[in-house]
Amino acid sequence: MLRMDVKELDRFLDEAFPQARTFGFEIDELDEEHIRLRLPVSKQHLRPGGTVNGPVLMSLADSATYMLVLARLGPVALAVTVSLNINFMRKPRPGVLLADARLLKLGKRIVVAEVRISGEDEPELYAHATVTYSLPPDR
Amino acid sequence: MLRMDVKELDRFLDEAFPQARTFGFEIDELDEEHIRLRLPVSKQHLRPGGTVNGPVLMSLADSATYMLVLARLGPVALAVTVSLNINFMRKPRPGVLLADARLLKLGKRIVVAEVRISGEDEPELYAHATVTYSLPPDR
Amino acid sequence: MLRMDVKELDRFLDEAFPQARTFGFEIDELDEEHIRLRLPVSKQHLRPGGTVNGPVLMSLADSATYMLVLARLGPVALAVTVSLNINFMRKPRPGVLLADARLLKLGKRIVVAEVRISGEDEPELYAHATVTYSLPPDR
Amino acid sequence: MLRMDVKELDRFLDEAFPQARTFGFEIDELDEEHIRLRLPVSKQHLRPGGTVNGPVLMSLADSATYMLVLARLGPVALAVTVSLNINFMRKPRPGVLLADARLLKLGKRIVVAEVRISGEDEPELYAHATVTYSLPPDR
User: Less CB within 10 Å around the terminal CB: N or C of chain C?
Assistant: First the structure.
């Protein structure tokens, strides 16, 4: 069951995380096990030479997981990232980045998700991350 | 394209890695992007209390990746594990473990795979790993 | 403060984890923030060609963390590995392996340690791991 | 041996990575095995509530490793992050962040570093990362 839909997540972001808005992603798809964020790459995400910055991909992986946690649990402000592991496989091409996060575990205290980052119309992955969140005990 | 099929991998294991045989896994499925190892859990894999040892799951993830590298590249004796990241999600139940490794990247020098470990007839994952191998430059 | 000293850890291992004994490590040093395990490499740890098996290093990193958790918290049978990340840097030489685990965090519910694996009389690291344990809520 | 000192790294950053400048870190210490970056936390790094954003810490870990690679190898523009693993241990307090990167391996093709992130006058770590870079074959 989803406790927040895309509109509610958007409103939450606008109010609580205006930086996320500046960063530039949008929620493209959402169901109980999966979320897709969409990030049109702009100048702020690039290294000279036109490569997308690694931290942009890490940030996107973290955000996708957080959005999915919120969608499932409601506005748990205190959910925090415990660990993040990311492998960078290919240099992203300019254009639109897609981050697909899927739940591997939604426990009482620990959430684990995997995130695949790819380009639009691009079959091969740019990066793969696993992200762990810790949930507050009393929510 | 596969350079080694299941029979050839089996023969390679018998000759070069008799310990793998003692460890007890079998190759259950193999195609170009995916391998499934099957490990019937026995006494040697258990902690007292009947829990499957964490290192058994790590070993299985590493082996699945290695078998898939061999299948794709032929008997590359010098392929070595560079890094392994594993998240343990659920306590495995006694029975048969399945490890499904899929290629995320097969580069000239780096191979990245993700491995999902589950039980037979068990929908939820026990563990998820990403494994990186380095390939020798001149093969 | 230590709740178990080396003798008590040894006794606990003998009783509860006879496999750990078969695996072959000994506790070499112990203080509040650090433990050193010592593993004389034997035939069971080797791949043909004389390389120490990657899973041997992973297992050693996991065990060192677990021993340090026990030393600090007492016999918490239900402490479980949540995640393990390991980088393999150099091929271990035959001889004695040392695993030095140090606490990065000892929280109420999460323990994080880093583990450095080296050889005796060997300045450079063979492997570096970070290991996360989860603690049961009511202990 | 260092191929670039702090001044040369600063000049390289100014020319090639003006974003790094916007991000705000400075090189505080540098020797052959170690670099310390210093980041005075400002509004751009915070989530509402005053928490430092996780991606800020990841970005800092990645940058510290990259600066150390440059210092040792000279301006290797094509060094790329292969993987990054980070554990978040404590909520950073507002003030100055320090990122201490140390080389675990400087190979021909792979560099591995560990990065400890703490606060100034703060004994306990906020985060611990291991970062792997791949080097171009012909440099």
Answer: N
